[in-house]
Amino acid sequence: MKITVAGESKEYKDGLTLPELIELENVEMPEYVTVSINEEFVESAAKESTVLKDGDNVEFLYFMGGGR
Questions:
Q1: Residue 26 and which of 10, 32, 40, 62 are 20 to 30 A apart at CA?
Q2: Residue 30 in domain
Q3: How many degrees, rounded to 5, is the angle at CA 30 between CA 24 and CA 32?
Q4: What is the pTM of this model?
Q5: Can you give the residue range of the structural domain that contains 36?
Q6: Cα(20)–Cα(44) distance, rounded to whole angstroms?
Q7: 35-40, long-range: CB < 8 A, 24+ apart
Q8: CATH number of domain containing 9
Q9: Does a structural domain hold residue 68?
Q10: With contact defined as beta carbons under 8 Å apart, do 12 and 19 qualify?
């Protein structure tokens, strides 16, 4: 199946789970990453059970604090 990850179209096995994708993509600090699938945020509790589908668009986001 084809999934777009961070703007790049990639081929993966059917039934790929979100945790498997995070590992395959070598996501830094996976415990702190926020995941968006098709522009919808994935709740932390749902990350482990999320199965990706053909055509999904996945983004990994990190929110940083800062300022004065």
A1: 40
A2: yes
A3: 160
A4: 0.88
A5: 2-62
A6: 15
A7: 35/59, 35/60, 35/61, 36/61
A8: 3.10.20.30
A9: no
A10: no
Question: 40 is written with which tokens?
Answer: 């919808």
Q: Does a structural domain hold residue 67? A: no
- CA 34 remoteness from chain centre: 8
Rg (Cα) of the chain, in Å, rounded? 12
> What are 12-58's pLDDT values in tens digits?
999 999 999 999 999 988 888 999 999 999 998 999 999 999 999 99
Interacting residues of 38 by C-beta distance below 8 A, sequence separation 6+: 56, 57
Residue 27: what pLDDT? 94
Question: So what's the pLDDT on residue 67?
Answer: 64
